[in-house]
Design a protein that fits this description.
The protein is an all-alpha fold. It has one domain. It is built from five helices and no strands. Helix 1 packs across helix 4 (81-96) and helix 2 (23-45) runs antiparallel to helix 3 (54-71). The chain is elongated and about 50 Å long.
Length: 115
């Protein structure tokens, strides 16, 4: 499959979700992001500047291997870093709202339409 091109975030979003088609990949993302966020917030509150780096370090250190070992693809971040951050935020918000099944449906539709 060739790497698709997108003219807007709205076009990119279903692709981003499809690159996280397996629930395990999404949950690893959620866990890494929330852990990094908690440690960063603690560092900010305690004025320990180095801990603020936990969000990107822990977030990416958990997400990228999930793409390799669970999903079997490359992270969308490599081709679309800004939209990927936005997509990660939207995906996590949906998961926290109990909408993980909807994410699976978006992924399945995009994959079926683009294979």
């Amino acid at each position: 499959m060739t790497k698709p091109r997108f003219d807007s975030y709205e076009e990119f979003w279903p692709y981003y979700v499809a690159m996280h088609s397996r629930a395990a990949t999404r949950w690893v993302h959620l866990t890494g992001t929330l852990t990094g966020l908690a440690i960063s917030a603690y560092g900010l509150a305690r004025r320990r500047g180095r801990l603020i780096l936990a969000l990107p370090l822990i977030g990416y250190a958990t997400a990228w291997p999930a793409h390799c070992f669970i999903e079997g693809n490359n992270p969308a971040t490599f081709g679309h870093p800004a939209w990927s951050l936005r997509g990660d935020r939207q995906m996590i918000r949906m998961m926290l709202a109990g909408r993980d099944r909807e994410l699976g449906e978006i992924a399945a539709k995009w994959l079926a339409d683009n294979r």
